[in-house]
Amino acid sequence: MNVIRSLGLLLLAALAWSAAATAFAQRIPAVTVYKTATCGCCKDWVKHLESNGFRVESHDVTDLDRIKQNLGVRPQYASCHTAIAEGYTLEGHVPASDIKRLLAERPKGRGLAVPGMPGGSPGMESAPKQPYATLLIDDQGGARVFEQH
Q: Can you tell me the distance from the alpha carbon of 89 to that of 49, in angstroms, rounded to the nearest whole number?
């Protein structure tokens, strides 16, 4: 009888672990990244997201400008890669901490952008560090500072 009871407790523990693992996996934000195949800093940014708990689906594309245009990324906010997370557009080397804050606060707007490729930003750590801002892009194409780095 003790063996049956032990097996029952083991089964209950396994089911509880499975449910907890499934719930955890569902909470991990997914980010879909569009980049060119040859861009090393884009690959480094993807690694930055993964090391900060994001699930990343990366797509190498040949017409990145078309994707940016379809997502409403204006040229003044452009960088070397574009991504989507929970309906928000992410342009450039946006730090994972800013994305987590965006998804927690859910402000009105199109998404976040780090224009250009500022040194010291995630994926650009090998370049000399320079101050930069993460911008919150509004639905009309304007922007305001979301975070200073």
A: 15
